[in-house]
Every structure is written in structure tokens, then in C-alpha cells.
Amino acid sequence: MTAFDARKLVGDLEVTLDVDVLVGAHPDRDGPPGTPESVLDVLAAHRIRSGAVASLRAALFDVPSGNDEVLALDGVVPVGAVDLRDPLGAVREIDRLAELGVRAIRLFPDEQGVEAGFPSVRHVARKAAGLGLVVLTGGDVRRFWQPFAGLEATVVFLDTHFYHLGDFLVAAADEPGFHTSTRLLNSPDALETVPPDRLLYGSRTPHYEPLVPLLRLATSGLKPDEIAAVAGGNARRLLG
Amino acid sequence: MIIDVHAHWGPWFFTMDVAAANLSAMDRYGIDLAIVSATEAVIYDARAGNRALAGWLTGQDRHLGYVTVNPRRPADAERDLREYLPTGKFVGVKIHTDYTGSPASSPQTREALAMVAEAGVPALVHTWGATVLDLAEVCRDTPGLRVIAGHMGADGYAYAIQAARECDRLYLEPCYSHAPAGRVARVAAAVDRTRLLFGTDSTLIDPASAFGAVAAANLDEETAELVAWRNAARLFGLDLTP
């Protein structure tokens, strides 16, 4: 055992549903290949029982075949990616996914070079909200809250950094459907500041270390029932 | 034993209230000693922040200080180094290149780091992306200078590996609010392990971030001990006998 043994700190914390899991690789980065088998292995090694999984193939190259890849996985919550560079195709894909019973879509604005003010984002936001789908979105929360405002949308902001926590909180105060991932809420009091029913454990496995948000949550000042909610209860409520 | 070579004392301007969080966070992660800079000194007024930190440090036994240097204020820096280093409570210098608008490659930071080398203490310098290579160049050009590349280039950790190879007086510490998979493991596999340190950026960032990232690297026992405290103790000349 070294000074950097996290097992004791994590204790018996289990995550029942991680809201931010990917399969596939980033061609512009060094990193793991993200094969489904290897991703599920990483989750299991960290006592993360299931994940809301989206496909980088869908996000970066071909939407239908990438989404079909995650729809074929067992034991996960499939999340459909759409391509904001093609808003018409995105809406067609949302219709297809909804018919297949998919409950959530995921947006990759940074990876697709799309800004919050682009018409496609508002178009997709309206469509998803109209169908009652949960939207998991990347991007700077200070900008990406806006296309979802006033739609009664259920949104999980996956990239909320603790630098921007105040912006999330004031936006979420007016929007009961706004939630945030824990991944970048690494300041000493961010997790303790967000209403616990708006917080969802997200790791971005396998491209980020799942241990970091796990450790932060395990050592947080939240009560046990709040930790359980963040570790999957809230995600199950939203995603089924 | 863990020594945190990148920590802070004082308030932050973000939506956070962590001024009192320091000791409890240290206890939670087994951090015995933290070397801190004053946030006021880093962000706004080096002289005022150093003075406030000097006052606070007199009552602390688990903290040592960095004298923060604003490279645009060399006369202030000279006075502060002369005043605070002999107290024994300050063991190094902190330079934040962004808050002072003084990149590592700028003439004023080069001059400030020459002053630090003259003073004979290590400098913790903020690095991000490829700027860590600029720091390596200054390190090579400045005899006797020992620098810690704060954040080891953050997302530019591949540059940090190169920087550590280019100057053998350049050390790396890992704190970063993001945790890309394999970042610490890759650096540890590629860099002389006697130049790897542990830093958290507490109280801005909870130690969970750096601790978790290092834990995820599964360092062998000997390397972990070097990273945890031995390298820092040697670099700062710390006498850790109880």
C-alpha cells in the first residue's frame, strides 16, 4: 500500500448509474481505444454498475451506425448521439431513437465545433424537449443553458466546471429540469453547494479517470442518502 | 507522509467559500505538510499577500510558504525575498504567469527567475500547454535555477515530459481540475522519477483531484514515496525529523 491508496477513502461506495460514459476513441488524442468490452471492464473495476453510454463513432463520424453500436450493448442505458452539424438529420435520428425506446440523447458541441447560439442547437433542444427526452450535453454551461431555457427541458450539463458553478446555479434556479454532472466540480465545496437532486455522478470513462469524481463524492460532505442519489438514484429517476 | 508543493491560503473569487477548508482537507488525504502561496499575492497584490501570509504562517506547524513574485515588480520581489526567506517559514517562490501577464518566455519572468536562482530556492511556476517548454528553456539558460512546472502543463503533459528531459533542474507536479485518463501514469513512465512531486492546488481544487489522478496511476511503492514526499523534502531542503 502506498500513500496514494484511494480504496479506504472510497470505501464501499457504489455507483449504480454513471451518466457520462463513452465507447469509441478520439482520433485527435492519445487515449484508450474505448472498445465496449474495455469500457465495461473499467466501470466494473470502479464498482460502477452501469453507465449511460454514447458512441464517439456517432458523435464524430456516422450517427446511425454509432448509435446502433450502443443500442446493442447489454446492461447499459443507451444514449443516442446526434450531429449538430446536421440539424435536419439530427431531428430524424431523434425520431428514430424515440421509436426504439431511447430515453436520452447526447450533444457533443465542442467535438463538432458547434456554438450555443447556432440555430441547430435550439432546433434540437426544442425537438428533444417536445418528446420528453433527456438531453446530456457537453459545452460551456454559461452558454449552453440558453438554448434549453423556457422549454421545460430536462438537461444534464456534462462539462460544468466549478469555475462556472455560480452560472449553473442561477440558471438552474429558473429551470427545474437543469442538472449537472459531478465530473469537474472538484473544488472543496462545489458538490455541497448544488442541490443534491440536481447532481449526477459522471466520469467520462474511459477518457477520464473515474476514480477522481468517485473519490470526491465518497469524501464529500453529503449525507448517505444524498450520495446514493448522486451515485445513480437521480440518473435512474431521469433515465429509467 | 505526503507533501503538497502546490497549495494556497486565502479566499477565491469564484462561487466558493473554502478559506477555512485547508487543514480538514489535508487530514482527509494524509497530507502532512503543504507549501502555500497567498491567493491575494498570486491574483492581485504580491506584497500585501506575502505580508498577510507571513503573519498567518507564524501560527502554523503544517504549512510553509512561497514568496509570491510578480515579475513586473522586481523591486518589490527583491524586498520580499530579503525579508521573508530568512524567517524559515518561506521555502520557495511562486510565479503565476497568467495573473501577472508575464509568460515564462517574457524578459521580466526571465529576470525574476534569475533573482530566484540567486536566492537559492526553488520556484513554482504556472504552466499550461506548451508554455512548459518555455519554462524549460529559461531553466536551461539560468544557472542554478530549480523550477517546478505547476500543473505539469495541464492538458499539455506531453510537453511537460519533453520539458523535463530538456532541463534536469525542472520538476513536475500534477494538479489539474481535469483528469484525462492515464495522464499521470504516462508522465511517470517517461520522466526521471526523482523529479516528480505531488501538488493539489488546494484550496482552489479539492485534493481528491490530484490524489485520485496519482492513485489511478498505480505507482510502484518506491516511486510513490518519491512523489509523495522524498523528492519534495530534498528539493526544498526540509528537515522532517520529528
UniProtKB/TrEMBL annotation, chain B:
Pfam families: Amidohydro_2. InterPro entries: ACMSD, Amidohydro-rel, Metal_Hydrolase. Residues 3-238 form the Amidohydrolase-related domain. Gene3D superfamilies: Metal-dependent hydrolases. One of its GO terms (molecular function) is hydrolase activity. Keywords: Hydrolase, Lyase. It comes from the Bacteria. This is Metal-dependent hydrolase. It comes from Nonomuraea terrae.
